[in-house]
């Protein structure tokens, strides 16, 4: 097993309040609407707060992945920080033994914020992940946040 970590950050032109609500609190509702070519649907078990689970179902565009079930470990509305851990599906059992994400939303102005993502993982075997897989883990959150940003800008009443 090899432990790894990758981080990224992206600035978006949407207030921290709207991005937090859309990308952390209502992601299970909005991601299938915003990125239907990748997300086929989602289910929430619980109230969305810490202790809940969110299952995201993927379209064939995400092959070989079909779904991922995440356990919400932290959803801190005061610091705009969320932490979740994959508990089924995704890359678990394929290349990863564990996979966890922490996302922090920080205000950068009245209508902008910085989204910082940290991804931690353990591989199944004693080899590190190939560099292209690490790059995907770094790039995917940025692309998702930019998609959420575009949707919120185009729909100013959503998550207002």
From TrEMBL:
Tell me the InterPro entries matching this sequence.
Bet_v_I/MLP, Bet_v_I_allergen, Plant_def-hormone_signal, START-like_dom_sf
Q: Which domain of life is it from?
A: Eukaryota
- CDD domains found in the cross-reference section: Bet_v1-like
Q: Which residue ranges does the record assign to the Bet v I/Major latex protein domain?
A: 2-154
Q: A Gene Ontology biological process annotation?
A: defense response
Record's GO cellular component terms: cytoplasm; nucleus
Q: SUPFAM superfamilies attached here?
A: Bet v1-like
Coiled coil (residue ranges): none
Q: Which GO terms describe its molecular function?
A: abscisic acid binding; protein phosphatase inhibitor activity; signaling receptor activity
Residue stretches spanning the membrane? none
Q: Which family does it belong to?
A: Belongs to the BetVI family.
Listed PANTHER family: OS03G0300400 PROTEIN, OS08G0374000 PROTEIN-RELATED
What is the protein name given in its UniProt record? (wild Malaysian banana) hypothetical protein
Organism of provenance: Musa acuminata subsp. malaccensis
